[in-house]
Amino acid sequence: MACNEKVRRWLVLTVGLMAVLIIADVLWRTPHPGVADQGDFDRVMNVSGLRVSADDTNNPEFVRFLDYTVSDYEIVADHGGSLLKRPAVTSMAYVIKPINQVCLLLGKDTFKTGYLAIFYAFAYTLAIVAIFAFIPVHSHIKLLVFSLISLWVFWDGNYLVWFNSLYGEPMMITSLALYIAAWMYYIHRHYVVKSPSGVFPAIVLIFAAGLLFLGSKLQVLSAWPIIVIMIFTLCWKNRRSFNRRQKILVLLGLLLIVYPLGFARNNKEMGRYTIYNAVFYGILKDSPDPAQDLLNLGISPDLAADAGKHVFLPPSEYKYVPSSQLMQDEFYGKIGNTDLVRYYVTHPARLFTGLEYTASQAFTTSTALGKYPQEYSDTPISEFNRFTSWSVLREKYAPRQLWLLVLFYLLVIGIGTREYLRRAYSAAIRLTITLLAGIMVIGWLQFPMPLVGNGQADTAKQLFLFNFTFDIMVVVSASWLISHIMDYACSPISKIHSAVSKDFDI
Predict the structure, then answer these.
(1) Burial letters for 316-336: b for 16+ Cβ neighbours within 10 Å, e otherwise?
(2) Gap between the terminal Cα atoms of the chain
(3) CA-to-CA distance for 224 and 98, rounded, in angstroms?
(4) Which end of the chain, N or C, is less surrounded by CB atoms within 10 Å?
(5) pTM to 2 decimal places
């Protein structure tokens, strides 16, 4: 059944309203949930003009980390620095700083994470509803199926609850959703509507969303070459349609997109923590010969005394304290990320064992961190069950073995390749499949990141973006399967079709 514009418009609006109602129930039904800080917020607060309020600092019973959420932060009114410098640390500052300015103009000196949650909720819903509006699906029944599956998966409470926090995870998935939506808008304008005037604005949106995505968290740097290739190819393909001013803007955009390369340089302290974990809580943990592994890395084997320890233990737990000058001279000054990659490339058996552990930690978007403020409950509450049926199902039944993950993606690649070859008549569908392939590769690159970059520390949380891209593949695959079942049921060779035709004299 052809999906006319009026039906499609009402369908998209209805799905958008359902999305808003789900978000309202998950985030704004009292008590308001969030995710407690495990020590990650300072990185964002320091560059966004925020600090813990004086009332909380002076309260001897105040618990800042792990157990309870904190929603109110004091705005540092005289916080210096240009917004142009913020992406070198986190693109979240592009959202937080303007909110701070609005608060100050209204005479308020308090930033609430709920304000950030409103932004995420609006941008996330706008992005995914835009995908519904522009995706090249020509049956409103199939579009409805795709939309309902997407609502169930992407509006899961264990995704949405992170919105009410200062973690980078919600910025990752929101900006990636915006990036995909911008591409779908470009495909719609260029290949469906065939409107030359709409191509350049779509490319600008792709640039903007790509920049927000690449600056959301340090771990997203692995996606940088994929995003650059996609955007450069897009600009090259449309180069003849740009006027002179547009060409200059595109060139400036291509130059600007290199900014994430400075991201690691501006997170040196975080880099020290992750490298320590990658070696002592990764390579050396469960190693048959930690001293030899250190020698292979060019590090003194004496440091093997701290094998199996992560960086956040009390100083008394170490023989060589991670923050000491000795470790700076004998460890941090002699090793870098390229050494870690080289180690795993030359030790494939250790890489395989490590990836098996990573697979065992995948598909968990829930967390044991506190979900509610201290004033709501004297006992920390980590359980959360608002609209979480998908994440509960995924955590229970998703393939946590490496070989099953490989098999799933081989099936996706096979089906995608088949569909790409069959759809030679539709440039829109082919480019959509190519876009999905790019998202899939971004997810793949996230999978080894926790092991190589952070050892076995906080692996489940580090796989947040991988889980999101996996869910994208699941939604697309499920929608494709249901679509083909529907096509078969309606085909003349189907027994269902024959029975219906006989009963109704079709």
Answers:
(1) eebebebeeeebeebbbeebe
(2) 16
(3) 26
(4) C
(5) 0.89
